[in-house]
């Protein structure tokens, strides 16, 4: 299922329950933090190697975290009439500009999440 299909499926899920006009962005946002907290509880205060081990032993919980969080994000996309597929493409395009692979290999350091490269480490 691609992102557009998932967004449509969630819209239909809400529609058949009479929830298509509900507006609960605050609750949805808070619910995402709850999901992140559940994931955080798996991996907090342990180093990267131990995290890999914990993740391997908790595949179902990790999958639930991803599914639950995507569901909530796509509900927000529906309520705010945002094309989530386009949003993700825009983000990837922006990150490609901020963190070009050639530059990343050159500086050898970057905020791998979103920050881009930092010349002070040259
Ligand atoms: Mg959950």
Describe this structure in words.
This protein is mainly alpha-helical. The chain has 2 domains: 1-14 and 22-82, Helix Hairpins (Orthogonal Bundle), CATH 1.10.287; 83-122, no CATH class. The protein contains 6 helices and 2 strands, in the order ααααααββ. The protein has a two-stranded antiparallel sheet. The longest helix is centred in the middle third of the chain and has 21 residues, at 59-79. The mean pLDDT is 89. The protein binds magnesium ion.
CATH top-level class of the largest domain: Mainly Alpha
Give the tally of β-strands: 2
Name the CATH architecture of the largest domain.
Answer: Orthogonal Bundle
Largest sheet: 2 strands, antiparallel
Distance between the termini: 42 Å
Q: Major sheet: order of its strands? A: 1-2
User: Radius of gyration, rounded?
Assistant: 18 Å
Mean pLDDT: 89
| Structural class by helix and strand composition | mainly alpha
Shape: globular
The ligands found in this model are: magnesium ion
Low-confidence residue ranges: none
CATH homologous superfamily title of the largest domain: MazG-like
Give the amount of beta strand, in percent.
Answer: under 5%
Level of helix content?
Answer: 55-70%
What is the succession of H and E elements? Answer: HHHHHHEE
- The tally of domains stands at 2
Write the layout of secondary structure elements.
Layout: H1 3-15, H2 25-43, H3 48-57, H4 59-79, H5 84-98, H6 101-107, E1 110-111, E2 116-117
Antiparallel strand pairs: 1-2
The protein binds magnesium ion.
